Amino acid sequence: MIGARVARALLAVALACGAGEATVRFVKLHELDPPELLDEQRRLIGDLSEITWFFGREGQAPPPGSLTQIAPGGLSYGWYDRPRWAYFDALGCVEYRINSLGFRDLDFPLEKPAGEARVLAVGDSFTFAAGVNLADCWVQRLERKLAAARGAPVEVVNAGFARGFRPESYAAWLAEQGMRLDPDALIVGFCLNDIATEIPMWVPLAPEFTPWLGGTSKLLTEVQRALARWRGTLVAAPSLPIKAKRIVSAHADEWQRARDGLLSMRDQMKARDGRMVVAILPMFSQLASGYLFGELHALVRDFCAAESIECVDLLPAFLGSDERDLWVHPHDQHPNDVGQERIASTLAAWFADHPLTPR
After folding, report:
1. Total structural domains in the chain?
2. Average pLDDT over residues 176-205
3. Which end is more exposed in the chain, N or C (fewer Cβ atoms within 10 Å of the end residue's Cβ)?
4. Does residue 259 form part of some domain?
5. Which are the contacts of 293, defined by CB distance < 8 A and separation ≥ 6?
6. What backbone torsions phi and psi does residue 79 show, to the nearest 5 degrees?
C-alpha cells in the first residue's frame, strides 16, 4: 500500500515536471517577435535592423525637395510585439513621419526667422529616435526646454540619418546641405559604435551557475535563472570592461575617420562663428551592474578636450538605472520616452550653463 502511494506521488511529480517543461518550451516558442519596419499601409519593409538602411542610406543624390537622403513627406511605422509602454498605438506601432525637407521633424522654414536660435542635431538612430514617437524624441523635448528657458523661438532640427550613420557622413552632409539651414549650434549625437562598428549596443547578463542536468531541462534552467536574479548573482558576460586600447588598435581606421569627421564639423561651425557640442550617448546595457563601456566614454571625452570641442557625456544621467526600464522593447535597446527625457534634460541643463544665442 505504501509502495503504491509512493509510486503515485512520484508519478504526480513526474507529470507536473513534464507539464512544467512543456509549458516552458511552449512559452519559448512564443517569445516576443523582433520589431519590424512597416510602410504607410503597414506592410512589411523589413525587421528593425533595416531602419539604418531604410533611413540612413547614402551614396545617392537627395530626393527632390529633400535636404537629406530621406524622401520628404514619407510615413512609416515601427511595429513591436506586445510593447510595455503607453506611448505605442493600439497596434503596437510608433510613427516615423518625414517633413517637407526630409527630416523626422515638424515642418519649419528653410530660412531661419529673425530672432530664432537654430540648432542642428546630427546622428544615427539614437538621434533619429528609433522606437519613440516624434513628440518624445530628445531633439523635440530639448527644443521645447530651450525655447522655454530662452523665452524666444528655438528650432532644434532632428537631422538624425540626414546622411548615413557615421560622423564622417554627417560632416559631408553638413558641408553640402546642412549649412543651408544657417545653424547657430551643432549637436553631434555620438554613439559609441561610431568608434568601431564592432562595439555592441547591448551585452546580456548571464547567470552565474552551472545549469542543472547540463541544461537539458528548460524548466530547471529557468528556475535557476529566476533564483539567480532573486539572489542578485546575475553577472555580466563578459565580466571585464571593453578596453579602449584594444578597440583603437583593432579598428584604427574607423576611429580615425570618426575623428576626422568631428574635426571637419568643428571647423565648419567655427568658420561661421557657430558652436559644436558632442553629446556622448551611453549604451543601455548593465547600467547598474558593471557598465562595460566606460573607457570608450573617456576616449571620446579626452579627444574632445584635446581638440577644444565642447562635450557632454550623458552617461552619469543613466548609471545605476535598470536598463530594462529604459529600453523601447526587449528586442530594441534604444531609449524609450523616459530615456529620451533624460537625454533632453541633461542637455538642457548643460545649455543653461553654456547659453545658446544666435550668431
Report:
1. 1
2. 93
3. N
4. yes
5. 192, 199, 241, 242, 282, 283, 285
6. -105, 135
